[in-house]
Amino acid sequence: PIKHAEHFSNHLSNIQNTRTEDTEQQIIRETFHLVSKRDENICNFLEGGLLIGGSDNKLIYRHYATLYFVFCVDSSESELGILDLIQVLVETLDKCFENVCELDLIFHVDKVHNILAEMVMGGMVLETNMSEIITQVEAQGKMEKSEAGITGAPARAVSAVKNMNLPEMPKNINIGDISIKVPNLPSFK
Amino acid sequence: MALKIVKGSIDRMFDKNLQDLVRGIRNHKEDEAKYISTCIDEIKQELKQDNIAVKANAVCKLTYLQMLGYDVSWAAFNIVEVMSSSKFTYKRIGYLAASQCFHEGTDVIMLTTNQIRKDLSSPNQYDTGVALTGLSCFVTPDLARDLANDIMTLMSHTKPYIRKKAVLIMYKVFLKYPESLRPAFPRLKEKLEDPDPGVQSAAVNVICELARRNPKNYLSLAPLFFKLMTSSTNNWVLIKIIKLFGALTPLEPRLGKKLIEPLTNLIHSTSAMSLLYECVNTVIAVLISLSSGMPNHSASIQLCVQKLRILIEDSDQNLKYLGLLAMSKILKTHPKSVQSHKDLILQCLDDKDESIRLRALDLLYGMVSKKNLMEIVKKLMLHVDKAEGTTYRDELLTKIIDICSQSNFQYITNFEWYISILVELTRLEGTRHGHLIASQMLDVAIRVKAIRGFAVAQMATLLDNAHLLTGNTQRNGICEVLYAAAWICGEFSEHLEDPMQTLEAMLRPKVATLPGHIQAVYVQNAAKLFATVLRKHDGETESQAAQETSQLLIDRLPLFVQSANLEVQERASCILQLVKYIQKLQQKNVEVAEEVTALFAGELNPVAPKAQKKVPIPEGLDLDAWINEPPSGSESEDEKPKAVFAKEEPKHSRSRHTEVDEKELARRREVRKQEQASNPFYIKASPSSQKVYDAPGVEHIPVVQIDLSVPLKVPGMPMSDQYLKLEEERRQKEKAERKKKEKKKKREKRGKERKADSGPESEEDITPAHQVDIVTEEMPENALPSDDDDKDPNDPHKALDIDLDKPLADSDKLPVRTHRPEVLKSPAEDRDGESVPQETKKKSGKEKKKDKEKDRKRSKEEKKKKKKPKEVEEELLESQPEEAVQSEETKEAAAPPTSTSAEASDLDFWLSSAPVPPAAQEVTAPSSSAAAVDTSSAAAPESEPDEPKDTEPEDTKSSKHKKKKQKKEKEEKEKKKKKRHHHHHQHHGDAGGEDSVQNGTVEEEEPLPPMSNYSLLAENSYIKMVYDIQGNHQDESKVVVSVIFENKSDSFLKAMEFNVLDSLNSKLQRPEGAGAHDSLTVPFQLPPGVSNEARFVFSVQSIVMPQKLKGTLTFIVKSDESSTHEKLDFKLHFTCTSYLITTPCYSDAYAKLLESGDLKGSSLRLEGINMPFHHLLARICFHHHFSVVERIDSCASMYSRSIQGHHVCLLVKTSDQTVSIDAKCDEPSLLGNVLDEIKQTFSKC
């Protein structure tokens, strides 16, 4: 099964084995350290160290612009399959956030979690069909909206106001063009 | 007041939400910790509010902070609060937080059980989904136990979205609560054929994961998975299944044979690299399991290697990496096919990606042979020089050593070369592996006697140049080699040319800077050298040299006597005194050499690492038995206080020898001596250590003197290269010589020689450069060959090693909450509960083993029983009126036993591609389990007359039992068995003609007459064709026709071509590019008497009417003298039944279906049916693909589904040889036709 999934620069981590916060952070730091220093154009697998649970485990990652998507899996998962799964995840994010960019993922960590939950559950691959995933995510989004109803409206207005002129608003976030380009890989399904 | 609330909620709008928090953290990069701590304070305030929206918002923020590594466990209770909100929005936030923050130690988890149960049964599927997702992350053994039954119910939920999640989470439940595996497994298995691909994929996922850890329990599922593999188009599912087969093949080689063909087809056809790769992997696993070479398998290996080469040559580094990975698996069994790609592998060593280089190194390890070892190592040495990072260089170093030393230096032909390689490696700066090189040097020098002279010379040079190695001692691990060098020079000092010089080198002041353990070896071996020098000058009167040596030692040793290291100090002072004494003797002209040498006499032999463990315990020795009788009670009390100080267990106390008389002692001493004589671990007086363990078959290897005119060491130049040249020349020479010899020799002799050498091709031409006796490691005589591979005792999967083929017992059920209707209760349980409760209660852990054995016996008996179905049937007829009420759950409880015993034979049948015996056929049909249900329930009452007799004596016995000790229980059990056996004989007398029924076994009998779904297609004197048509839920417009071709003639049948005249509605699927009337080639030939099965896919449009298609089979009959072209016409009958698929349906769903009113009715009456009701049901199930939904007395509801999703419901009633069937279906013409077909089935019998 998939031991944990994470992606960096916005620090989403989803660790399936229960550990303490400290080891979790250690795993993330170590993984980031390992993955980020790797060059482009070398293979996307890293064999297991002790921290990620021994030699049966592998880190499998993909790198999009400033984002790394890293999955830690054991030998029951197909390596190329997981690469495709990451691709599906990114494409799904792209659809759900409409042209996803790094900041989307940073500010909507919960949403990313919910999307991931439709794909991987308890470390096992749940669904790989993108349209099915999107259908379920959207249906749940709709439910949320209908529940918010009238009371939700002022909250949304407030958050719009906040975005406009509150002092926390970042002055110079340089987004540049870090919107993720989703390359057309040979489709898997 | 109201205003206050409004004001409060408006205030709340200005609370930070998650986005604000994230933004805030990003804006406070400098003082992040401080900012977050104020945020946490705010959150704490928010959590105190009553408003659930506020709480949810706070929890949402906490989840984010948890991800950043902050401890939020203090908010666990608030998380539970948010989880239990009725709004989905908040519930989801709560569950997400729980899945991130909760773990086994979180105590509030206990509080969640009821909330989760409520959410699981929520009418809103997303509530259920969110609960399942959350639960999958934090499920504990308690939660698993309490919720297993609820989750199992969800596995049959109407919504596929819930089903797939429920199926997947079962894996986690099994891990936490292994007892749930057996009761849940039948339903899980059912889900493998779920109409929804997502659910199916989840089920495959779970079963594969289970099977990976305990493959043997899942072998019986192989046919099912095989079917899925050949029918599924979902690559994820295929990959999982193919990976699973990779785990199963080692257990069942026949499975491998069956897999090769479909897998090779997939390899050829698939465009998905991931699938291709897994196929290759599994083919490799198959080939490994089929170690006995079948000729046509070399083609498969070639295919794999060829595909892998394409992967490795690909520019995609991922494919390259995986290709190398898979290649290394082939290497283990088929090294030759990989060796031909050596160029490619060596090329990969230059890759910029370290992972790939390491993989290539791994491959090289297996690729070496005597022939290419030197060349490969030379390449590696070049890489060592080039390597930049020390990690990779160290990796190279270890690999070189691994490669050379593998399997007892099997591939090394020239040890001088190897020693010089090792010496070269010592020049690596900053390596961590000094000790590795050192141990190699020691190993070679000790075990290869012929090399000692050379080794000692090299080591002496090393010692002389020690300053080069010890440049920066502290960081440098390489000085470890000096340890080896010093020891070798000392131990084998007789080979030294100038021991005096070496001795001087070993006593230089700089040595004192070396690590302590090395200095200690230096000092000790200096003494050995001293002995050698003395002996050399033995006999020379007033030898100046000997006295000079003594003086040298006396001068230099005090330096070591002052050492801070205890070991060094001790040895040095000891030896210093010794030398001083010797000097005195020398001055008196006393001969001392011999006595000094005696100090270091004897030789060391290597001992195998596990030798001690493997010494067998001699027969008759009981290590637990008392050597002397234990002292009487009073004495042992005296003994006790002693034990406080001496921790030895009383068993080992040796203090009682005194009481034994002298004679006895003498006798024992004698025995011990004899024992020691045959025990290699005792050092004996006789020089048995001189014994040399020659490697088998080394004696006759010719000895060639190496030309030593080449200088041994050219400073600054790698000298191992020269050996390469030399070696080549030597081989050339040898070849020439051999050719000469061969001419003289007779062929027979050469044959012998070849046998003796087992290397790969032309290996036998290469002989070692000098006599090598690789001293094998010593092992005790008659050592046990066992190799205990220790399994990790903490592996959670160990608990899941559960025999799933064993019939479900009534103890195998999931705990159900008591206030619920008892869903799992079945008549079988009731009966057991009344008659034999004491038996189940008595069962202790130990006895479970016995039960297993019983089961095995039982299944054996079943097999016997099957041979006499008629008798059983008679029995059944008698017992039929007593039938108990059967609920849907009985089916679940009772179905597995029959289907599993059937499956075992099913697997055998499936694996042997022999002609279809009708008896086996009966169990291959998917509906057999349903059929078996009825029989088992019907069979149950039959055992009743048996039971009262049995239980009565047991009752009285059990009360006695409790008083008796455990030891005696065993005997008792055996007695009981005999008793029971006796009873059974009585019964045998009563019933007559039934001889293998034992109590409890009857339930699993299969009394139905053999049935087959295959019906005759056509037959002539050459060939017989039977066929079966099966639908598939995955594709509503396809059916698969399986045709078994049986060759009835004595000739060979080949070039069989199958063709069908398509109709508008039904068409044979032909490969792309083929014309509409082209025939399909049957993919096999038939030798005489052989049968084989081929499958043809047909597409159909409308399924409401039966249809017949005309077709022809043409084939060539080839006998010894002639061959003729023959033809056989046939009609394929697509009945409406063949479009139905056995689909289980639960009674609630069934009732809803009938209530919906969408179905149209029809009915049928059958007169004169003279068969038991359960037979009737079984026939409908089997021949018409129905499943029993519910059955009450002589009335049963049944269900089936067409490939296009039509529901077909039957209500079958029987009374007095009349059967009435009321049927409902959403397609009346389909129903009419199905009923006609049912009628026809029963008119036949």
From TrEMBL, chain A:
Example GO BP: intracellular protein transport
> Does Cell inner membrane count among this protein's keywords?
no
Ranges of residues in domain AP complex mu/sigma subunit: 20-143
Keywords annotated in UniProt: Cytoplasmic vesicle, Golgi apparatus, Membrane, Protein transport, Transport
Q: How does it sit in the membrane?
A: Peripheral membrane protein
Please name the Pfam families in this protein's record. Clat_adaptor_s
Where is this gene product found? Cytoplasmic vesicle membrane; Golgi apparatus
Please provide, in alphabetical order, the Gene Ontology terms of the cellular component aspect for this entry: AP-3 adaptor complex; cytoplasmic vesicle membrane; Golgi apparatus
Gene3D superfamilies for this protein: 3.30.450.60
What function does the entry list? Part of the AP-3 complex, an adaptor-related complex which is not clathrin-associated. The complex is associated with the Golgi region as well as more peripheral structures. It facilitates the budding of vesicles from the Golgi membrane and may be directly involved in trafficking to lysosomes. In concert with the BLOC-1 complex, AP-3 is required to target cargos into vesicles assembled at cell bodies for delivery into neurites and nerve terminals.
The entry assigns this protein to a family as follows:
Belongs to the adaptor complexes small subunit family.
- For this entry, the protein name equals Adaptor related protein complex 3 subunit sigma 1
Q: Tell me which species this is from.
A: Sinocyclocheilus grahami
Designated gene of the protein = LOC107573766
